[in-house]
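Much of what follows relies on a compact textual record of a protein's fold. A record is reproduced here so that you can trace the correspondence yourselves:

. . .
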Amino acid sequence: MRRTRQAKIVATLGPASSDPAVVRQLFIAGVDVFRLNFSHGSHADHAARFKTLRALEQETGRPIAILADLQGPKLRVGTFAEGPVTLASGQAFRLDLDPAPGTAQRAGLPHPEIFAALVPGAELLLDDGKLRLVVERCGADFADTRVVAGGRLSERKGVNVPGVVLPITALTDKDRRDLALALELGADWIALSFVQRPQDVIEARALIGDRAAIVVKLEKPSAVEQLDEIVALADAVMVARGDLGVELPAERVPAIQKRIVRSCRRLGKPVIVATQMLESMIDSPVPTRAEASDVATAIYDGADAVMLSAESASGKYPVVAVEMMNRIIEQVEADPAYRQLIDASHASARPGGDVAEAVCCAMRRAVTLLQAAAIVCYTSSGHTSLRAARERPPSPILSLTPRLATARRLALVWGVHSVWTDDVADVDRMSERACEVARRDRFAAPGQFIVTIAGMPFGTPGTTNLIRIAAA
């Protein structure tokens, strides 16, 4: 089950991809991380998918990561007395806390936290930004607005408030129930929605502890403004371009995506580029050329993973979409310009770094000079493999760990082939085991160089301090 690419594929399970046979096909086609979207489906649905994935993991012998994506707060308008209404540009429209069904002149907005944060001049976006309102006057229970961009508005449509930090937590009561289930089932990654500030990540960490790693979804402008602080607190980051594209002008999203990827690569945190990557493949067996270029751009930038949402969850061609994404990645990584771009964008180490940084810098240089077939990382917590992946070396990384939870989490990380194996007791056995696994999994032929990095004493997290070169 060796992948022939470095970047990873995240795919969402849903009605089109819950059958165990389809899940197996998705895995064979190239999925490394399976996303369960808790915005949809029952707890029983998600528990069944967990069971399917763990059975597949046992069958194939390859660690599979499961990402539980929490819904986060969903801000929506209320109902309408006579069905959808049409708002004309320039007209007045009131939003308030009154639960009575709305009209073409007003609608309920059952979120006092929004009114608490509004000021005159603030924008409100309805239905994924299709309608735009500007606040003219507001109070604790109402907002009188002027319609800037009108259109048809039906009940329960979403509301976005760009440029305003709302006084609400990123975890709703529903999220807390979903989180409890995900942790009980053994999710490897928890995706946190609606992050506005570093405190939201700290709050989630207090609940999750070390039972799962946290993916922060960057979808709010206020989070982008505090990018480095939030990335430093996260275990990984998702560029949630759909919501970013609602709250920010579409032309700003590409530059922000690149900025987020650069920040994550500099800080050594895995980064997923998500949303509408192969959107047309929900209904078509082939993507548009623009979509293929979009996926390729994320790979050229050095993203750890790219993600499929509705394409694999509810589309007509879930397996074909994964196969297409796999081929795009392989094609990009075979391009000589890819390695040139990755090397040019590498964040060079600076004086004052730690021992692990020095070891990994030496590893990267040794691999390049010797044209080593593979890098083998011994890791307990995953830190050594993460630090090696930050270097974006030209050879694949075999990550050996005695902890199954660590092996699963590392399935998300660029270049890492994760292996759950027995621990080693001494340096000689370390080299022997590294060469055995490299040959067994067809990463190296006898006589080729293997560069091994580890921490001494073995099994102690965060002690990367050893590099050894041997022939397979």
Observations:
- The radius of gyration is 24 Å.
- The chain has a mean pLDDT of 94.
- The chain has three domains: 8-73+170-332, 85-160, 355-471.
- The CA atoms of residues 412 and 459 lie 22 Å apart.
